[in-house]
Amino acid sequence: MNLCSTPPLIHFLNMQVTKFSRRTEAGFLLGSVTLTNFSSGREVEVVFKNENVVAILKGEKEEIIASVPHLIINMETDSGRVVQTEDLRLGQRLSTVVIPAPPELLWPESLKVMGPEAFGYPEIKEPII
């Protein structure tokens, strides 16, 4: 894989969990977590269905800034340990990174089963990063 041809990595550092909700429905863990940046106060909401599906930059105008099949990963800021959706808790200090999906996951056939529309976001016609 040629790393020079992949989109840039997106990262949000020094964030804190300020709000989250989760529930189990039809065997899926559904919910969202809101992360607030310590210095700027900017908020990012990560919506999940077992796995992180979209990241939304909050503000006057909300903007979806990342979506599946790209990987949206929450990690403990101090240790770098990946935090699963079931392990989220208020006050937790996290950093979020978005890692680009390999080109094969961006093919139309792949997106039918793992793209944004497959997770209930029909307004997103192509994965966002």
What is the arithmetic mean of pLDDT?
A: 87
CATH fold group: CV3147-like
Number of helices: 1
Q: List the strand order in the largest sheet.
A: 5-4-3-2-1-7-6
End-to-end gap: 18 Å
The number of E-state strands comes to 7
For CATH, the homologous superfamily is named as CV3147-like
Q: How is the main sheet built?
A: 7 strands, antiparallel
Stretches with pLDDT under 50, minimum 5 residues: 1-5
Give me the strand/helix succession.
EEEEEEEH
Quickly name the level 1 CATH class: Mainly Beta
How helical, in percent, are the residues? under 10%
| CATH architect. name | Beta Barrel
Derived from helix and strand composition plus strand pairing, the structural class reads: mainly beta
Note the overall shape: globular
How many independent structural domains? Answer: 1
Please indicate the percent range of residues in DSSP E strands (runs of 2 or more). Answer: 35-45%
Q: What is this entry, summarized?
A:
This protein is mainly β and 129 residues long. The chain has one helix spanning 108-114; strands at 10-25, 28-37, 43-49, 51-57, 63-67, 71-76, 93-99.
What this model shows, in words?
The chain has a seven-stranded antiparallel sheet with strand order 5-4-3-2-1-7-6, with no helix packed on it. The protein has one helix and seven strands, in the order E-E-E-E-E-E-E-H. The chain has one domain: CV3147-like, CATH 2.40.390.10. Strand 3 (43-49) and strand 4 form a beta hairpin. It has one helix at 108-114, and strands at 10-25, 28-37, 43-49, 51-57, 63-67, 71-76, 93-99. It is mostly beta strands.
